[in-house]
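Figure 2 data, in text form.
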Amino acid sequence: MQTANPILSRIDRDAAQAASSCPGFAYEEGRTAVAAAQAPAPQATAAATSAAVHSAGAADAGYYAGVQIPAPVGQRVTFADVMVKSAIMFGLAVVGAFVGWGLTAAVPGIGTGVVLVATVGTLVLGLVNAFKRQVSPPLTLLYAACSGIFLGAISYWYNELALQSDYEGLVLQAVLATFTTFGVMLLLYGTGIVKVNGRFMKIMIVAMVSYLFIGIASFVAALLGVGGGWGFYGVGTLGLLLCVFGVGLAAFSLMLDFEAIKQGIAMGLPERESWRMSFGLLVTLVWLYLEFLRMFAIIASGRE
């Protein structure tokens, strides 16, 4: 199982360690699926560990000495678990978005503060959840709420910016584009039209690292006033092309998340890992939505 999503990559590392250290308890179907799907992830460090398995009913079932092992039958994560947790987190994010939009619209000048606080909170909670060994449902829910407030506030700001150029419906277009892209990517993945394999992963890693450097360079350029404060994203055709590139990366990252979820279920991971899977999926969707917002904002600014 391979994914560029730092949250879901933890599932990859745990699964690889389980296969190497606890072969007698490996979930055979999942191990076969992983071996047939792709090579081990580059970042995985499968250090061999000889350890006994926790007794049934232990508080930390599924873990021993930091190694993920298949959970007992009946306690393994299922697709339904991921769907339910995802619905809860997405619903909470939507509620947060309405709150963020309302606060920004109701109190003049509060928008910048809301965006700043929500951005910091989203980043901090995202990092905490990403690097936390044991997933924490309350923290993942708090991330969903905080990211929702952030999205609501920044969506209002983008919408007002677009209205200045007589461009209506920017936020609605971004929302529809995000869900449409999600559906298309799920269809392409489910039908096997696009194969998520080792080659696919290598291409994605190169593309995402390149985009990261472009983003950093654009941020520095924005501080220097390039592109009217937008950096490279505000220089006409180049900015639009970069946004299209970002949308494509975020969209194909969804496929990596689908694969990680599929393999996590096949490996028989504990049910609580459904929170991590849903969290990782939400992170990618937030990224995709922000890319669409920026792309439509550039289109709106070009109408002047």
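Caption note: Residues 186 and 294 are 23 Å apart (CA to CA).
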